[in-house]
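Record 1 of the preview.
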Amino acid sequence: MLRKLRIAAAVVCFALVTLLFLDFTGTLHAWFGWLARIQFLPALLAVNVGVVLALVALTLLFGRVYCSVICPLGVMQDIVSWASGKRRKHRNRFAYSPALTWLRRGMLVVFVAAMLAGVGSLLAPYSAYGRIAHWIVHNEVDGGVDWTNMGDDKLVTTYTNAYVKSMRLCASIVRQYDANAEFFASFSHSWSRASNPGWYPVRDMVGLLGDFSRAEGDFRWALACHSYPETISDPCTWREPNATFAMNTPFVTLKNLEVLSKWALTPANLFRGTTRRSV
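->
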């Protein structure tokens, strides 16, 4: 009976925490936000002494209840283990092995060292379960007339300036919670030539993106290009006449992805002049 209650509680907690990560409206946070606050590392970082002491007491009294019910990564591991046992049809999925005390103590040392270094969140099971490492800000932003509803009468400088502010706003919010996050500007396969009427050449936008970001304080934006074939209906990229290896190529496709590498390695395009941007 107790096992059934534990499994039911674990399923409910797992589903609600997952929905919290997926709910971008904030509706569920008003009702179930407390599930995030009772996770161990967030409570520890928030110096929520009551929650930390309660979790320690719960563990001492009832064992791995936190890992098997409250922590979403622990529940997910149990689900994977259960599914693996079903697939392999082993009656007993676990076997006795001597306690690896050195491993437990070693992991404790690593975790404490990570906390002191300010990167403890990288090892936190709650953060690892719901981590979003990179963010794509809008889709194919060179097509402002179609994708961002900014019309077709904006100068490329005006349009790019508005987009940089949108990216910076996203970066300012996310970096409060994940200092390693990157923010990708999504473009089509055009480069020096606009893909469609009313669109902008990606090369022009990327250059302005760098200028605006440096003028107002550079941040970790990166480049994401959709390397479609030059002609969408023709996948034979090796026959594309307008996908060249020069930096003024009209299009960037699977044939000439090296152009993006060259762009990323150009000193003027480095993040704060030292770090290559992701592509």
